[in-house]
């Protein structure tokens, strides 16, 4: 029960007691007043009537006796008037047995009143001629008391209601600072480290408010410092230490994102020939300077080109250029430009035959492994042409074209011909036997051939079929969880096309209502790159997922796409790091620092960090010592 309700009930109860006691005292005082008034009235009547009857107490048959008694009796609220002579004989007796129907019986029993009786001796000269008894009717007093009690109760009730309304708004006003503090605490838990500007005047609440503001500012500074550290470390991890070009891990990540965004273009694979021999002859310092110049030549050759171009250094003598949306003619122009500029550099170092270049196109049906294999093949062919030559790889005619892929996607969706398997078991790093999550994998078959799932998803997304694919996979996952009685969370990959689609979100909500007992085992997963393209839709979907009782995970996280400051707003349940961030982490101090900083921030945000596909035992132990939540092998 809230503090407001407790205080309101307590104050209302206290004043209910006060009003009740006051009402009871008021009614009792009124009753006492009416009893005393009745006694005085009876005595006054007996005295005055006795004096009036005194001259006529000569005999019972005097008509004035009865007349005078009736006059008084009819004019007042009397129950009975009796006149006795000196011998005690009754001369006159008048009585009114009437009662008041307006007064309920329970009221009379609850508040009994004494009947007022007065007597007066009647003198005739110096002798007692008789006695007069006057009894006041209590009905009139009860009627007066009942009417007064009803009025008092009504006024007390109205006053009590008005007072409670006043107390309600007064407590609301007094407790507004506590509401602000409560909201601030919730905001801090959700990663929003705001402060309360309106400081309350109440000493105790003021102290709590200032403490909360101090804590919020301190946590915000901590996260800002960690963000800066992560940003700096993340950028260093993406760059080659010598040439400051992007590294191989960054190339792999960029290629995945190109496929997801349905991009097309060319990859230039450039290798310096016999760099090892050159290093032995010239020494390390000369080679380092040469490699820096080589990188600058690549950057200069790619200047002033109206396309998205990235340059990478893989390992040692291997470099690459990724050019998006280039035509073959433009590629040939860039190839010739590279050849000319690198020839000049080679001549400077007395190496006219410096490099050879393999160029391979990529599109929605490509894969990184296939591209690098084809680029290496083209590189070898360039060796046969001559010094600093390049060769553009031509697609194999057996490769599916886009239309064939499209027909395959439509057929698979129609026939629901994909199998769901559970892969990538995430183990709790503190207890390696405990499975904390499994990821589903959709296996697509085209006859005897296994279809590449990445290309299948990309084609489905490009042609608007991905929503049907996601629905079908969710149905099959629910069926598998039910049949196998899986108790741990299961990760389901979703495309941003589905996430931003209102019809899909409504369908998902309705579908999961039918399987409410399984919802808490579902973890919906979206890549960081996809989420970065539409952060508003991702945030709305995150709120929706939490509302229905499921969980949300951002996978393949890299700080180049989404900063941790942005992650603060999403209230993620899980954050799965890109494979490149943890590969070889046992031997890479920079990666260790990055993951440690991620772990510190995630603890503050109540988000579990997971490593993906950890291959080596040493890497697994390194992550375990850092203390992240889980990892898959």
Molecular structure report:
The chain is of the alpha/beta class and 633 residues long. It folds into three domains: 3-162, Beta-Lactamase; 248-392, Reverse transcriptase/Diguanylate cyclase domain (Alpha-Beta Plaits); 402-632, EAL domain (TIM Barrel, Alpha-Beta Barrel), CATH 3.20.20. Helix content is 55%, strand content 19%. The protein is built from 21 helices and 18 strands. The chain has helices spanning 3-53, 63-75, 105-110, 138-189, 203-238, 248-260, 275-282, 284-301, 328-348, 368-385, 402-415, 453-462, 466-484, 496-499, 502-513, 528-532, 535-547, 564-567, 579-582, 589-605, 617-626, and strands spanning 78-85, 90-95, 117-124, 127-136, 265-272, 309-313, 318-324, 355-362, 390-392, 418-428, 431-446, 449-451, 490-493, 522-527, 551-557, 574-577, 608-611, 630-632. The strands form three sheets. The chain has an eight-stranded mixed barrel with strand order 10-11-13-14-15-16-17-18, surrounded by five helices. Strand 8, helix 10 (368-385) and strand 9 (390-392) form a beta-alpha-beta unit. Helix 8 runs antiparallel to helix 9. It is rod-shaped and about 165 Å long. The model has no long low-confidence stretch (mean pLDDT 85).
